[in-house]
């Protein structure tokens, strides 16, 4: 491994830390699995990586067929714009394996002119000087104390307070600054709970926001558990554990941890919001609204709470009430990007495709990948295939691991004449099976599978995937009816039967909501 984690691989710049590859300054969109294959080949270059070795390293603890491996190499080559007949990057050694043929060498560190340094002088600035940050414009930002004497002059409490301030700002660089501050605090006091918990949150953010792999959430989980071993009644530690499990798709475990956090600290509104969201993901819309209503009852008018109320009501088929709550949220913060995302999703589910396309396009100056995906789906529903492809490409350029964009772009590219067994062996299907085996309970994995089956007009298989999604809590029947990706199978009897089963669950939740006096005011249609 180079000191910077960066390599020159032919004309590619590969950053092992960021898990990214670029050419001439333009990032190349790679799925998680394609990245794993590429990194294995680069790490072993110029040696040939045998089939069994590649399978063990890129698909650990899985049985991988030669067809699956060949398909993944094909997708990787397509992403790299590599010709298998005259390969610049990946060559096939027939009967043996694959080899990365471009020359690989450590990339030189960025020149000092590209780094940011702040130099202060005077006794009055000693404490602040210890918190100065030397950072590069990548994911290796670190806190660099100027001298050990200065570092020693800063208290553990000061480091932790500054860490939480950075953590709250929300950018990647601030998250890395926060992580470094928490690590320094724990070096001073190995058993400091606030430092462990802060690190846990920062590691979870790495995975949920910044495309790091499961190593980050594993670290987050271990740190939260260590804090709980020292203080089993620490509510923040339970909250951190919930967040780490949430990042891993363990919705049941995360919900239990959030509930523990709330029981210990009923004023932990972050844990309440997170628990409400997971209840919504699990299709328990009535319970989600009770928690969201509890936040309102305590005078907490939070944007996320208003949006979650609107989303839960829409999923329950209470569109008029949902739209009123969306208007209330829009009145408070009309330029909120999450609000634009939610509104575009509402319009799409109500089959108002032109309005959905306009809403998502009006915020095209933002880099929210999910909004770009919604724009692509709306354009596809309007018959604008090229515009849809461009939107999905843009989404994956901003977030190469965007789940929905990955599946929708792939579904759009699949030849409808493909066979069921080809789709079953598709690398994305392998990823779904792997995530399920690793305990991921998110229903959207199965919706991704349904996209791929619908692309080959297999209504029965798409219906089976929907039933699996339903078992994990998927309730968005309106979106399923509106999505252009399911038009090919929409009238298939098996698909219609699956939709009817989901609608039954929705009707149950709607009845619970409408008949609960505690939620009556949420259905008040007065703006």
Give a topology summary.
Blueprint (H helix, E strand, L loop, with lengths): L5 E4 L2 E4 L4 E4 L2 E2 L4 H13 L3 E3 H8 L7 H15 L9 E4 L3 E4 L3 E3 L19 H4 L3 E2 L7 E2 L4 H5 L3 H14 L2 H17 L4 H18 L3 H17 L4 H13 L3 H14 L4 H13 L3 H13 L5 H13 L3 H14 L4 H13 L3 H9 L7 H13 L3 H14 L4 H11 L6 H5 L2 H11 L6 H12 L3 H13 L5 H6 L10 H22 L13
Antiparallel strand pairs: 1-2, 1-8, 2-3, 3-4, 5-7, 6-7, 9-10
Helix pairs in contact: 1-3, 6-7, 6-8, 7-8, 8-9, 8-10, 9-10, 10-11, 10-12, 11-12, 12-13, 12-14, 13-14, 14-15, 14-16, 15-16, 16-17, 16-18, 17-18, 18-19, 19-20, 20-23, 22-23, 23-24, 24-26
What would the keywords be for this entry?
single chain; 527 residues; alpha+beta; 5-stranded antiparallel β-sheet; 26 helices
Question: Quick summary of this structure?
Answer:
With 527 residues, the chain is α+β, with helices and mostly antiparallel strands. Helices cover 61% and strands 6% of the residues.
Whole-angstrom Rg: 25 Å
Separate helix tally: 26
Helix content: 55-70%
* Strand line-up of the largest beta sheet: 4-3-2-1-8
**Unreliable stretches:** 109-151
Strand content: 5-15%
Structural class: alpha+beta
Could you describe the largest sheet, including whether it forms a barrel?
5 strands, antiparallel
């Amino acid at each position: 491994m180079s000191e910077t984690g960066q390599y020159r691989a032919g004309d590619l710049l590969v950053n092992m830390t960021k898990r990214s590859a670029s050419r001439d300054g333009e990032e190349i969109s790679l799925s998680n699995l394609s990245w794993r294959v590429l990194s294995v080949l680069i790490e072993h270059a110029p040696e040939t990586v045998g089939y069994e070795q590649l399978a063990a390293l890129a698909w650990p603890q899985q049985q991988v067929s030669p067809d699956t491996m060949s398909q993944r190499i094909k997708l990787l080559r397509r992403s790299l714009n590599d010709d298998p007949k005259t390969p610049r990057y990946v060559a096939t050694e027939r009967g043996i394996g694959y080899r990365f043929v471009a020359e690989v060498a450590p990339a030189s560190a960025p020149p000092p002119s590209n780094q940011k340094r702040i130099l202060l002088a005077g006794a009055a600035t000693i404490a602040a000087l210890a918190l100065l940050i030397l950072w590069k414009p990548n994911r290796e930002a670190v806190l660099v104390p100027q001298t050990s004497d200065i570092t020693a002059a800063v208290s553990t409490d000061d480091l932790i307070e500054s860490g939480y301030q950075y953590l709250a700002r929300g950018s990647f660089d601030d998250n890395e600054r926060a992580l470094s501050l928490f690590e320094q605090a724990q070096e001073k006091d190995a058993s400091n709970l606030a430092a462990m918990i802060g690190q846990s949150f920062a590691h979870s953010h790495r995975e949920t926001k910044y495309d790091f792999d499961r190593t980050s959430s594993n670290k987050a989980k271990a740190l939260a558990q260590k804090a709980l071993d020292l203080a089993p009644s620490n509510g923040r530690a339970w909250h951190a554990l919930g967040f780490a499990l949430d990042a891993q798709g363990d919705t049941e475990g995360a919900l239990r941890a959030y509930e523990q956090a709330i029981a210990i600290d009923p004023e932990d509104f972050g844990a309440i919001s997170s628990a409400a969201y997971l209840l919504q993901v699990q299709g328990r819309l009535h319970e989600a609204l009770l928690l969201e209503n509890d936040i309102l009852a305590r005078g907490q008018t939070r944007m996320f709470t208003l949006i979650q109320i609107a989303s839960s009501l829409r999923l329950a088929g209470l569109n008029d009430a949902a739209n009123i709550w969306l208007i209330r949220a829009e009145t408070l913060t009309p330029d909120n990007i999450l609000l634009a995302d939610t509104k575009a999703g509402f319009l799409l589910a109500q089959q108002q495709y032109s309005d959905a396309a306009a809403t998502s396009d009006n915020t095209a100056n933002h880099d929210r990948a999910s909004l770009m995906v919604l724009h692509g789906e709306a354009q596809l529903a309007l018959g604008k295939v090229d515009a849809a492809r461009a939107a999905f490409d843009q989404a994956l350029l901003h977030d190469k691991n965007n789940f929905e964009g990955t599946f929708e772009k792939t579904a759009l590219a699949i030849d409808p004449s493909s066979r069921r067994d080809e789709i079953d062996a598709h690398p994305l299907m392998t990823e779904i099976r792997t995530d399920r085996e690793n305990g991921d309970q998110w229903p959207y994995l199965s919706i991704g599978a349904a996209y791929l089956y619908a692309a080959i007009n297999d209504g029965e298989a798409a219906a089976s995937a929907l039933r699996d999604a339903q078992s994990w809590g998927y309730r968005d029947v309106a979106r399923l009816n509106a999505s252009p990706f399911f038009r090919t199978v929409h009238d298939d009897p098996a698909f219609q039967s699956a939709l009817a089963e989901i609608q039954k669950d929705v009707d149950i939740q709607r009845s619970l909501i409408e008949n609960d006096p505690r939620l009556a005011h949420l259905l008040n249609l007065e703006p």
